[in-house]
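Ticket #335: bound-state structure for zinc ion.
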Amino acid sequence: MLALGKLLELTLTDHEPAEKTQVTPKGVRLRWLGEGALEVRPPESEDCGLDLLLSAGIHGNETAPIELLERLLHGVANSTIKPRARVLFLFGNPAAIRKGERFIEQDINRLFNGRHELSSGFEALRAAELEQFARVFFSKPERGRLHYDLHTAIRGSKIEQFALYPFKEGRKHSRRELARLAAAGMEAVLLQSKSSITFSAFTYEQLDAEAFTLELGKARPFGQNEQVNLDKLEQRLIRIIEGTEPEVDDALDGLKLFSVAREIIKHSDSFHLHLPADIENFAELSKGYLLAEDLAETRWVVEEEGARIIFPNPKVKNGLRAGILIVPDSGQRLG
Ligand SMILES: O=C(O)CCC(=O)N[C@@H](CCC(=O)O)C(=O)O
Ligand SMILES: [Zn+2]
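RESOLUTION: The complex was predicted; output attached.
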């Protein structure tokens, strides 16, 4: 296997490779771009016209997606996977991955779309760097642009694998991309309805990529991910990389759609979330339920029919999202 296939090992040991570019016997070029960043380019004659960005480790303790990217990269480096797409592999927060923690100083996935400019420290610098890797990668005109930012969640979930689809004014969520996600094993998609500061929101809003955050199960340490079944996603990613994906039709195949009813924002240290510590993502909440309280007698009471909660987390910094209240979506506004 080509040494650059060991991007994870290089990243975990904070090593720069001796050789920055390597070519497989089939003419596939691997180029190390910087810490945790590697571009794969097929021979020109084989190029299918798709640019695919795969990121993982934006949160350092979410290891199953990191292991998945490593398997894909090994496949490319030992020629068992034959790329026809350009692919950029990114490990988002190397320092946090090395420590096995969600972040070091602050959540990097709240620093995109310009937020890093208002901040400082390690994660802010890395967010700017990741934006630049993505900007350069997606700068070639007239090519398909697809970004999957792979995560696992802090808590268990009633719906194990799901996607979050960013929002941009005037742009419709694509039914075809949803069908592709269903074929990749996603069971649900949350259609966002406002601009955001996550990595997938940046590539969607500013770089014109189809972009998604994928939640793939519960976060566990390296080597303890037997319960996270990524087979379906892995098979689909290999087909996308190899340009052998069967024609995607519009069938959503039972995919459940949700939209955001409200984001619960923690405004102060007085914020209190009235949910059991072991509540699962997608837990249903009945109308009238007092979900949270904050200073100045702010109360979050559930008013929506069919409401569910995802990512409840009272420990976030003040000013950040402490949970999302979602409702079923009919999919009528898909493009
Ligand atoms: O389990 C949790 O509470 C958080 C899981 C996670 O990291 N989710 C992403 C979602 C990003 C998005 O909204 O697209 C995050 O919170 O950064
Ligand atoms: Zn995450």
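RESOLUTION NOTES: The chain has seven helices and 16 strands.
TICKET STATUS: resolved
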